[in-house]
Amino acid sequence: MENDDEPSERELVERARRDPEAFATLYRKHVAGIRAFTYRRCGDPHLADDITAIVFERAWKYLPTLKVADYGIGPWLYRIASNELASHFRKRGRGERATQRLANVRPVNGADPADQLQLAHDIEAVRAALGRLRARHQEVISLRYLAGLTPQETAVAMDTTPSVVAAVLHRALKALENVMNNDNGNGGDEE
Questions:
Q1: How far apart, in whole angstroms, are the C-alpha atoms of residue 108 and residue 150?
Q2: Binning pLDDT at 50, 70 and 90, where does residue 113 land?
Q3: Residue 52 has pLDDT above 80, yes or no
Q4: pTM of the full predicted structure?
């Protein structure tokens, strides 16, 4: 909830076109969420930092022409992050990604080692399965669950309606379930 004394994001964007400190305020407001989203999606802290930097670099670049909706710029930033991640993963081999993600899984402190191993395996299985889905399905699951966006914010980030998001999300979750239940690993809904 916004304080009445604080400027709206629309006002901050207007000011940021002339004043870098206003952009710094927008950055501080959104950087932690964007960084967390990219990290949860890729599992690599260095890549998450790089993608986060790219998101705000692009935001700065397009600031002069940005039209800010009532709900702010958050969904737009998540869309940039999602697109950057998709672009990165298209360029990189799947086998290399899976190996790197497995190495980056951190154990939960104080947990039973067997539980830690199972959790690491489960996380890797979900990430690997997510990586085998078509880009639109990866995007909707990532925005809705990894970024924690509301259905409305997800719709804005995907440039569609909430009802389309619901339908795509339903299909995406079914596809994810199918990939994860496929014992030989050859299934999926790749494009």
A1: 28
A2: low
A3: yes
A4: 0.56
Reduce the DSSP state of residue 149 to 3 states and report it: coil
104-124 burial string, b = 16+ CB within 10 Å, else e?
A: bbeeeeeeeeeebeebbeebb
Taking only the tens place, the pLDDT of each residue in 121-173 is: 777 777 788 888 888 888 888 888 878 888 888 888 888 888 888 888 889 88
Q: Averaged over 47-65, what is the pLDDT?
A: 91
Q: Both tokens of residue 71?
A: 């709900």
What's the CA gap between 137 and 69, in Å, rounded? Answer: 25
Written as one letter, the residue type at 17 is R
The CATH number, out of the four listed (3.40.50.720, 1.10.8.50, 1.10.1740.10, 3.20.170.30), of the domain defined by the range 1-92 = 1.10.1740.10
The amino acid at residue 50 is D
| Integer Cα distance of 34 and 22 in angstroms | 18
Q: What is the rounded CA–CA span in Å between residue 108 and residue 96?
A: 24
Q: Match domain 132-191 to its CATH number in 3.40.50.1240, 3.90.1170.50, 3.40.50.2300, 1.10.10.10.
A: 1.10.10.10
